[in-house]
Design goal:
Elements (H helix, E strand, L loop, with lengths): L1 H11 L2 E6 L3 H13 L5 E6 L2 H10 L4 E5 L1 E2 L2 E2 L1 H10 L5 E5 L4 H9 L4 E4 L5 H26 L9 H18 L3 E8 L2 H8 L1 H17 L6 E6 L2 E6 L5 H16 L2 E3 L2 E3 L3 E8 L6 H16 L7 E4 L2 H22 L3 E10 L4 E13 L2 E3 L5 H7 L2 H21 L6 E4 L2 H5 L3 H12 L6 E5 L1 H5 L2 H14 L2 E7 L16 E4 L1 H6 L4 H16 L3 E4 L5 H9 L4 E2 L8 E2 H10 L8
Parallel strand pairs: 1-2, 1-3, 3-6, 6-7, 13-14, 16-18, 18-19, 19-20, 20-21, 21-22, 22-23
Antiparallel strand pairs: 4-5, 8-10, 8-13, 9-10, 11-12, 15-16, 15-23, 15-24, 16-17
């Protein structure tokens, strides 16, 4: 392949050759030999000594150098060393009058591509030597690229980045100029690979690499460390605010949806920044501190697209987050998670409509709410395993209630990672089969985020779930990503209003209007309107006025353990507050 590519290059562009030779006769001889080979178009430049070659090398794009070892300003292998220093990346073919095998071996070891004797040279031999020299150089460059560049994105790899960063740090020390080191990665990248295939993930990484490069100067550098993690340095900073502007620029370009295979994917980015010398003077310290800052940026919430500068207190926060992940893994292994069930009531019929399964963590004898550990579950990737446990446990409990004569619908929340899992439909079907629960007694709650990135795929997933016979609810709806008109495109049965709307609806006419509109449109599309977080009689009165179907909240009942809910089912729920 290399030979074919070289031949195509030769046909398209003449070979630019620099002959460094002080003997006019030898110069004519080389020119005549090259002219003999009409199949190798070339342009011959000439310099009589090394010093005269400098302006030629600065002016012309030289492909190869033919070098006489005996020149007025150099002799022997010293000539080769000087020429290499002037053109370190250019192949050199040595010409010599001396038939000295030891000299030839040394010349090749010192970087010459070939060693030719003037007394034995011919046109075909010279042109073949030049061609082979070019091909060897191209092979060396290819091998160097494989060794120092990421094959997927063509960015520098870890090794080359660290070499360049070491030089940048040395320059920063000499000139006393700050340097920013940044670590960035894509949130939810694993789900992209799992949902759409690794070829989509690879294209996403290529596009992100191109976007980051567009934000940097020629003196800066970005490399791919592996997976979806990138490392960047911005050298010679005029001030720290310039680093903030670059970080924000990277965040901004990553917010633009990625167009891949007809899909529009929104994949947030998190980025951490450490500054030399304030945040560390060694490469290892700066990388560690940038990683701590990135870790905290990922924990800020809001779907990603955040950057954080390193601060001393971040070390402790990052350590606590990692310790939390370790505890959560142990909690899953030791069955320290439990489910509680919050009743949902039918406002028109004034009776129990179902329950929502809510996860709790029993940590050292205390009950921990999801708000304190859900982000860590998602970030660590444990959310998929924990979600599988929630689904199985909730189905099993619902089946026990049905067996006792209380066919109660149980609602289970699906995380974004679960929804994107290609095995979701099989997992749900498996949970129903193992528990023997009727499908209509299971309701799956999904968020707007699950639907907005790829509506076509989301619709396919919902239809598969719908075909199982389970009910589907859009959770925490406020219309941030999907308009009311969008609802009709999805095969869902219920729309649950965001609790912030319910909380403020008695004080905010706008929130009350939004709630009324959502309920009305849901009814138009034969969906239920459901309110959560109901805590006051005023909220309940407005919901009745707007014909809301179902509601849940502390006004009616707090989340109950399975045994307590069983007791309530036997005793009959107190529905006086629904009157």
């Amino acid at each position: 392949m290399a030979t074919g590519e070289t031949a195509q290059t030769d046909k398209a562009k003449p070979l630019s050759i620099l002959l460094i030779e002080d003997n006019p006769g030898d110069r004519r001889l080389v020119q005549e030999m090259l002219d003999e080979c009409a199949g190798v178009p070339c342009t011959l430049h000439h310099a009589e000594q090394i010093g005269a070659a400098i302006p030629v090398l600065e002016r012309e794009a030289i492909d190869i150098i033919i070098l006489d070892l005996g020149l007025p300003d150099g002799s022997g292998l010293d000539t080769l060393v000087k020429t290499h220093a002037l053109a370190p990346g250019t192949p050199i073919v040595v010409l010599s009058e001396l038939e000295n095998e030891a000299l030839a071996v040394k010349a090749v070891r010192m970087g010459a591509q070939d060693f030719l004797l003037k007394s034995h040279i011919s046109g075909p031999l010279l042109t073949r030597s030049l061609r082979y020299a070019m091909e060897r150089r191209q092979l060396e460059e290819h091998l160097h690229r494989l060794a120092y560049h990421d094959p997927l994105t063509d960015l520098p790899n870890r090794k080359l980045f660290y070499e360049r960063f070491a030089r940048a740090l040395a320059a920063g020390r000499r000139h006393r100029r700050p340097i920013a080191l940044m670590l960035a990665d894509l949130n939810g990248f694993k789900q992209i690979n799992d949902s759409f295939g690794h070829h989509v993930g690879d294209e996403l990484l290529r596009q992100m690499a191109s976007r980051v490069v567009s934000c940097l100067r020629a003196t800066d550098c970005v490399a791919r460390l592996g997976g979806d993690e990138f490392i960047i340095y911005v050298s010679d900073l005029s001030d720290v605010q310039y680093a903030a502007r670059v970080a924000q620029k990277i965040i901004d370009v990553c917010e633009v949806p990625y167009a891949i295979e007809g899909r529009s994917l929104i994949v947030p980015c998190s980025l951490g920044v450490a500054i030399y010398p304030d945040d560390g003077e060694s490469m290892e310290t700066l990388v560690r501190n940038a990683d701590s800052a990135m870790y905290l940026a990922k924990g800020q919430g809001g779907g990603g697209n955040r950057f954080r500068f390193y601060q001393r207190e971040l070390d402790q926060a990052a350590l606590q987050r990692r310790e939390l992940e370790t505890e959560l893994r142990a909690a899953l292994a030791n069955d320290d998670f439990i489910l509680k069930y919050q009743p949902q009531f039918d406002l028109r019929r004034r009776r129990l409509a179902g329950v929502e399964a809510l996860i709790r963590w029993q940590r050292n004898g205390e009950e921990v709410l999801p708000s304190q550990f859900m982000a860590a579950l998602e970030e660590s990737g444990l959310i998929t395993e924990v979600g599988k446990w929630v689904l199985s446990t909730a189905c099993g409990q619902a089946m026990r209630w049905k067996a006792d004569g209380y066919p109660v619908k149980v609602a289970v929340n699906l995380s974004f990672a679960q929804f994107c899992d290609p095995q979701l439909t099989n997992l749900v079907a498996d949970a129903l089969r193992k528990s023997s629960l009727d499908a209509h007694l299971l309701e799956l709650e999904i968020s707007e985020d699950c639907l907005r990135d790829d509506e076509s795929l989301a619709t396919d997933i919902l239809r598969q779930l719908n075909a199982l016979g389970v009910r589907l609810a859009l959770d925490n709806y406020r219309g941030r990503s999907l308009s009311l008109r969008d609802l009709k495109r999805f095969p869902i049965h219920s729309v649950k209003l965001d609790r912030s709307l319910i909380r403020d609806m008695t004080e905010s006419p706008d929130d009350a209007a939004i709630a009324r509109a959502v309920i009305s449109v849901a009814h138009v599309f034969n969906m239920k309107g459901v309110a959560e977080g109901v805590e006051s009689a005023g909220q309940l009165a407005l919901l009745r006025e707007h014909a809301c179907d179902d509601a849940q909240g502390f006004m009616f009942a707090k989340p109950l353990a399975a045994e307590a809910l069983s007791d309530a089912l036997h005793a009959g729920f107190d529905t006086t507050r629904l009157q």
